[in-house]
Amino acid sequence: MKKTNLIAYTGVLSALAIVFGYLEQMIPMPVAVPGIKLGLSNICVLIALYALNKKCAFGTAVIKALVCGILFWGVSGMLYALAGSLLAFCAMALGKGSGRFGVVGVSVLGAVFHNVGQLIVLRLLSGSFSVVYYVSVLGVAACVTGTLTGIVAALILRRIKNLK
Amino acid sequence: MKKNDLLLILLLLVVFSAAIAAVTLFGRTGETVVVSVNGNETGSYALSEDTRVPIGTTNVLVIEGKKAYMESADCPDQICVRHKPITKCGEEIICLPNRVIVRIR
User: Fold this and answer.
1) Which residues touch A25 (CB under 8 Å, ≥6 apart)?
2) Which of the pair, A122 or A82, is modelled with greater confidence?
């Protein structure tokens, strides 16, 4: 694929990710724990990772975190989003690179590590918290949401083969 | 979905659920409620005494019948207010926007 195409697709996917981030704000979560969300915008990063390449996925992850963070949660929120996004990207890139996991597994890895990234920032900003309990609550949520978004991403990827 | 994906999901679920179960089932009922704002501990209160504690100007914490919960907060998401009352060691209520952490010890 030509470089211009890659850039254009990255832009489209980033824009879509930001829209997903916005839509997500309107979906109420049944559990009252901060940090739990569907992670719809991760679908875009997954698609960038599989249908385009690592660089594009990285771009999508960073743009989505910066713009969504600033738009919806302010500067400190952006830090959470950015840390989560970057760590999630690393985990997904490694997970895909290892060749052991399918789209769903990579998505779950991304979801879990997104939380880990956020918790690191929480730790830095707000000091102590009981890691075990909080990581576990967020971890269970990440497994569920990661599987769901992974399935969606897999379904989409099967249908956009002509992107390549 | 690959087999490894399922294994990964199951493994993660089991590990995390076990940790949650350990805290909620076997956790001792705590004695003190510790409040911290911005990473600094601002006070600790006995769980056995019923009180109403304003945290700064932003949040109000209530300790009632050996349970602690957030009565009000000025943040937009109100997640901490919806959080279930906490009693066990290690459980906590977090208000991200105001950087308030209420924890049982």
Assistant:
1) A72
2) A82
Query: What number is the ipTM of this complex?
Result: 0.76
- With contact defined as beta carbons under 8 Å apart, do A44 and A16 qualify? yes
pLDDT (0 to 100) of residue B103: 85
Tell me how far apart the alpha carbons of residues A156 and A154 are, in angstroms, rounded to a whole number. Answer: 5
Structure pTM?
0.79
pLDDT at B44 > cutoff 90: no
pLDDT at A90 over 90: yes
Smallest CA–CA separation between A60 and chain B, in Å? 24
Residue B78: Cβ within 10 Å count: 15
Q: Helix, strand, or coil here: A1?
A: coil
Crossing angle for the helix pair A74-98 and A54-68, to the nearest 10 degrees:
160
**Does A12 contact chain B (CB < 8 Å)?**
no
Nearest by CB: A125 against B1, B23, B99: B99
Residue of higher predicted confidence among A123 and A42:
A42
Contacts of A122 in chain B (CB under 8 A): 94, 96
Greatest mean pLDDT among A54-68, A110-124, B30-44, B72-86: A54-68
Bridge partners for B54 per DSSP? B60
Q: Whose structure tokens read 């601002």?
A: B42
Taking the C-alpha atoms of residue A161 and residue A154, their distance in angstroms, rounded to an integer, is 11
Q: Backbone dihedral region of A99: left (phi > 0), alpha (psi from -120 to 50 degrees) or beta? A: left
Q: Which of B7, B9, B58, B81 to mutate to test the interface with A (most CBs of A within 10 A)?
A: B9
Contact of B2 with chain A, judged by CB distance below 8 Å, is answered with: yes
pLDDT of residue A55: 92
Return the biggest CA–CA distance within chain B: 54
